Amino acid sequence: MFLNIKKLAAIACVSMAVGVATIPSIVSAQNSSQPSSTETRKPHNGNSWKKLNLTDAQKAQMKTIRENAKAQTDAVLTPEQRDILQKSQQSGDHKGVWKSLNLTDAQKQQLKTIRENTQAQMKSVLTPEQQQQVSQMKKR
Questions:
Q1: What is the DSSP string of 72-120?
Q2: What are phi and psi of 78, to 5 degrees?
Q3: Which of 21, 55, 93, 59 is nearest to 85 (CA)?
Q4: What's the burial of 80, exposed, middle or buried (CB within 10 Å: 0-12/13-18/19+)?
Q5: What is the pLDDT of residues 28-75, one digit of tens each?
Q6: Measuring CA to CA, which of 24, 39, 107, 133 is 20 to 30 A from 45?
Q7: Which residues of 89-102 are buried (b: 16+ CB within 10 A; e: fewer)?
Q8: pTM for this structure?
Q9: Tens digits of per-residue pLDDT, 62-105?
């Protein structure tokens, strides 16, 4: 049982970290006069996402989905946990941050549901060809 919880926590951490690190780099590709906080850190696999050639409409949908997921995640976390997460994002030090949050089993389950729903929503935005490209990227 404990190993399943650890696996679940690890999956949730990786998924959220990837979402936080990659999706903003897609959206930030739009021209802006001010650098955002996502531009100061290295995007995780950002070049792979660029290969999908998302349309402006898809980028906007992805941004909305990502913002909704962040709002849902923030609602699950305590103020202290949100503060820890925010500080790690600002510093760029993501290693072990999710473990340091000491999530309850209920929080882990809620975050898993949010992650799964977010992934399904993002997948629905992509064309079949783009979905195939994502599958190939995951295999690598």
A1: HHHHHS-HHHHHHHHHHHHHT--TTHHHHT---HHHHHHHHHHHHHHHH
A2: -75, 165
A3: 93
A4: exposed
A5: 443 333 344 443 444 455 566 788 899 999 999 999 999 999 999 999
A6: 107
A7: beeeebeebbeebe
A8: 0.62
A9: 999 999 999 999 999 999 999 999 988 888 878 888 888 999 99
